[in-house]
Amino acid sequence: MATIDDVARAAGVSISTVSYALSGKRSIKESTRNRVLDAAAHLGYLPNASARTLAANRSQIFAVTAPLHPDTDHSAHMVFAMEVTKAARDLDYDTLLLVHNDALDGMKRSAATSLADGIIVLDVDAHDPRADLARQLACPVVFIGVPEDTTGLVCVDLDFEAAAALAVDRLVAAGRKRIGLISHPEETLSRESNFPLRFLHGFERHVAELGIEHVEITPRTHRGLEAVEDVLDAMPDVDGLVLNTNVDVASSVGAALALHGKSVPTDVSVIAAGVTFSTARFPVPFDTIPLDAHASCSAAVEMLARIVETSASLPETTLIPPTYIDQGSVAPAFGHAPTPAR
Amino acid sequence: MATIDDVARAAGVSISTVSYALSGKRSIKESTRNRVLDAAAHLGYLPNASARTLAANRSQIFAVTAPLHPDTDHSAHMVFAMEVTKAARDLDYDTLLLVHNDALDGMKRSAATSLADGIIVLDVDAHDPRADLARQLACPVVFIGVPEDTTGLVCVDLDFEAAAALAVDRLVAAGRKRIGLISHPEETLSRESNFPLRFLHGFERHVAELGIEHVEITPRTHRGLEAVEDVLDAMPDVDGLVLNTNVDVASSVGAALALHGKSVPTDVSVIAAGVTFSTARFPVPFDTIPLDAHASCSAAVEMLARIVETSASLPETTLIPPTYIDQGSVAPAFGHAPTPAR
DNA sequence: CTGTTAGCGCGTTCAT
DNA sequence: ATGAACGCGCTAACAG
């Protein structure tokens, strides 16, 4: 490969001139700069990554720790990893993938060796060991997700409590009075993956505030049928349903309701909330309050870049407000004059 | 961070002694070596990645290019990326993720800047632009998948043709005489994603050799029902079915057959072949010839490491022999004395 | 506006 | 078996 020396020689200037002409960190006469640029392009010159890193003390690499639990949704996982990577590239960073048992050690390693300038943490549990580690590391860390103790941490995530409240509000605005929630499987909750809990709390708080009849279900299987039947057992005349669950369960809820003679949206209005998947191609599409990977990831990456580049960080948690996608699965209850949603 | 100088001082030796004590590239007296190791452990010393890279001309990083097409299966994608990453870590390499429109440029960049020691290519098309690029790059590249022109390339993949033949053989051994193949959606085939084509060819060749009645179907939807109906339209008395298709279609094939009064395995014996997903939790599990991500990825990563570390590469394509997982979805046809499978 | 030069931290050759 | 010293390619402080 061509080095900066080759370019300098070809352009008839010194190597610092080449460096500055390419980085733009100080002004160079238009004509000489063009000569440098031409020479660089001609030689196909790109600065050696490690030399640049060593000298500038910056690698332009973010590490991404993404452990895989038995119950994690590979598809959602990939989407987050990709969105982080895309957002990072937009800011001129590459991303190193840290997985499996290396999710924790990899954080230490990439920080201690100055491999990475910063670390993005995915799939955060309530009591995530990576939270403690992040507090010890000198390396900047941003969490996509919120552990229980956020002291000293920078976190970004959908506002799941607000998402749950928004779902309830929409159903209530449509005159729905008996609301069921289908949550995540027990195994996910017990691992204390954090967002289902936050959604659950938001739901409970809001229905309590509004004095709404409600029931919460944890699916025993990966199918919607049993979940729907659990809801109907507990609340036969349910007229509103919130789905904060995985795609396997959610995709078969429509058929399960139909099987029990309940139509969507008339008998039961349904909203999928805090979910990464689209319901657009479901047999029955649902109104959705998405967990928007793009929004979370680009926000997180931008924060991390800012922290790295300005070394100014105020630890704080950023909650992204929920948005609402109408697919026609919520309709006014019989005899109910719809009130405007909040 | 502690530098090698700190360790040298703490151990009362020179930096080269530290370097050799840690790398083991030349022998050091037991006692001094232990002093060095202790000092290093005590200081939490890890060599600076870029300094090490600059001096050794090796980054211990592999780049992984994994573009995402509209029809790619996120879940399978993630599994491959993870398996590559795990295999790489086992050999002391980290992996850089290259996605989206950066899949091609990223290859150039990571090679030209010496960011990566080698490149793993995922999701290979028949006419993949990354194949030409790989031929030009000085950087070692291994493909997981096989493009049409493999001249000068190193490729690793499941032997899809053998997998198709194995599926046919198993059905024939069970006395099945009219075999249907449900392939991938048209959009996947037309992009010339390569493995469905290779599977298709293997299937066609082998049924032709054996003189077996057969029919091939390309699903029009993402559901098994229409696909099964297409098969039944073309071949009402089908008694063997090979599924080389996506999880959405495959998971609903069992129910679709039942709906048309066909039982598995008696009326129709079914094999899923060349698929990344497990059918174990399907309503009706199928015998499976898996596309084993772990096998392909660790083989590819080991080859790449070998090429990087010995700079000895003979371009060649390695096809991994298919394996068979019995789930009870294949049974002898009525009146057929089962013959031993090959 | 441009050139000179001192490191960045480590691997490795050459001496001893 | 150990140490001294050079150089990897680049950035940035300093000098003009």
Report on this model:
The structure is a homodimer of 342-residue chains. With 342 residues, chain A is α/β, with parallel strands linked by helices. Chain A has three domains: 55 residues, lambda repressor-like DNA-binding domains (434 Repressor (Amino-terminal Domain)); 130 residues, Rossmann fold; 127 residues, Rossmann fold (3-Layer(aba) Sandwich), CATH 3.40.50.2300. Chains A and B meet through helix 4, helix 5, strand 2 and helix 6 of A and helix 4, helix 5, strand 2 and helix 6 of B. Strand 2 of chain A pairs antiparallel with strand 2 of chain B, so a sheet runs across the interface. The first copy, chain A, binds a DNA duplex (16 and 16 nucleotides) through helix 2 and helix 4.
Which structural traits does this protein have?
DNA-binding; 3 domains; 434 Repressor (Amino-terminal Domain); homodimer; 11 strands; 342 residues; Rossmann fold
Determine the oligomeric state from the structure: homodimer
Find the CATH superfamily of the largest domain in chain A: Response regulator
Helical run tally of chain A: 14
Mean pLDDT of chain A: 93
Beta-strand fraction estimate of chain A: 15-25%
* Contiguous runs where pLDDT drops below 50 for at least 5 residues of chain A: none
Instruction: Report the CATH architecture of the largest domain in chain A.
Output: 3-Layer(aba) Sandwich
Rg over C-alpha atoms of chain A, rounded to the nearest angstrom: 25 Å
Helix content of chain A: 40-55%
Shape of chain A: elongated
Let me know the largest β-sheet of chain A: 6 strands, parallel
Computed structural class of chain A: alpha/beta
CATH class bucket of the largest domain in chain A: Alpha Beta
Please give the most extensive interface between any two protein chains, plus how many residues each contributes: A-B, 43 and 43 residues
**What is the CATH topology of the largest domain in chain A?**
Rossmann fold
Total number of strands of chain A? 11
Distance between the termini of chain A: 61 Å
